[in-house]
Amino acid sequence: MADTQRVQVSVAELSRHNTKHDCWIAIHSKVWDLTEFIDEHPGGAGILLRCAGKNATNDYDQVHAPAILEENLPSDRFKGILEEAISDIPPKGTVTEARQKNEATQNEENPLRNPELHTLISAADFEKIARTALTPKTWAFYSSAATDLITHHQNKAFLRRIMIQPRVLRDVRKADFSRTILGNKTAAPFFISPAAMARLVHPDGELALAKAAAAEGIIQCISNNASYPLGSITQSTDPQQTFFFQLYVNIERQKTTELLLKARDLGIKAIFVTVDAPVPGKREADERIAAVAIQSAISGATASNDKKGGGLGRLMAQYIDKALQWSDLAWIKETSGLPVVLKGVQSVEDAKLAVEYGVDGILLSNHGGRSLDTSQPAILNLLELRMKCPEIFAKLEVYVDGGFERGTDILKALALGATAVGVGRPYLYSLVYGQEGTQHLTQILKDEIEVSMRLCGLTSLDQISPDLINTSDIDYLVRSSNKFPDIANTRGRAKL
User: Fold this and answer.
1) Is 248 one of the catalytic residues?
2) pTM for this one?
3) Active-site residue among 202, 367, 409, 440?
4) Per-block average pLDDT, block size 10, for the chain (496 residues)?
5) Where are the extended beta strands (E) located within 75-198?
6) In the chain, how many domains are there?
7) In this structure, are 151 and 97 located in the same domain?
8) Which of 61, 276, 286, 409 is catalytic?
9) Residues 86, 142 within the same domain
10) Residue 373 annotated to the active site
């Protein structure tokens, strides 16, 4: 592409390539030949043909993140730089000038549209701002959960039912809350959980999350349905920054193979295989609002609308392989050559199987309550695993997510044996303020952990044990393993 970068294409020349059999389109000053791609376009050939022979930057930006073309098209499809439009089109990855002017005007007309960032002092504050700052569809997509929201609400509620029993009269002038996750050092015992299409909140989307994570020394787990290409995210910041990658296995296994190889080559440190969502849950708030035209830069999943509604999560999940099973884990591990973590384990039995199949970690997660409603709260699953199978924590690393938004929440999970905690929705809400907001949220969580540790008499995370907490209020909810008699044989049914 190096020589082509010096070739200038006039608007007149571009306009001559405007048919299905000769289709050139300009995106962010770069001219591409999309003729061979027309019939493969996920959004249909008609969209490309309407833009054929034109500068389609504005239409493109409404659906795609920058750099998708560079990631997915052969270099010989790049024809050169659009001559007359060079000075008018912003570089990839930036907010358009029109958008900047619009935001400036809005700020002048309504300077209190969003409070000053420094006035936000908790994760909950970001959620309050996001509720009004985001579009109704984006808010519905991120905040929604399955059906009656039981699991979604209980994730947080059950965390608050666990009490802390601090120790006193200890020298707590220093408090070290750094951690190692799968051999990777991190400044705090939490990471950014994967969440789809962050660009719906802010034009920098996952790039802002990556830069904030690097600045704060924590790890980001990139979503398979991210709005930016994987390479754009990993290369947007310090080369030493640690990234994990969340994987949904594609029904076209070859595409997953290619993605795993790309992740490995880009320096991804672990693969988090999502196992709790072979199909998406019914998220009614998301379904009620018509879907917007978006496409994931990594999975290629697109949104549309149908007779069931406009749920982005459901519409973008059609590529997921419903036949994924335990025996496939060896293929994922061998192909990637990376540590494998199962994201979405929710039972002691599956945790034991994870050990048998040689995975490196499990993330106890119910998808933030977005998959199967009335499934157990995440912290209850962690408590049950600790009570029934404590030896498992020495065999693999255990993480948990779902409802965590306080430093005390995180300490409670660590006391039960978790290596680290995933934080999801709060980070999406923090993107209302871009990278600066994400860093501010991280600093809030770090400060809450440090203060809580000192108040508990702790100077290191290695000192945490179950003695720190009182779980009596939820202990009785851990089901006895012999509560129900075995009647499978009498009814002619095989055990699961």
Assistant:
1) yes
2) 0.85
3) 367
4) 68 88 86 82 70 81 66 80 60 43 42 85 98 96 95 98 98 98 98 95 97 98 96 96 98 97 98 96 90 81 77 84 97 98 98 98 97 98 98 98 98 98 98 98 98 98 97 95 67 55
5) 78-82, 163-164, 179-181, 184-186, 190-192
6) 2
7) no
8) 276
9) no
10) no
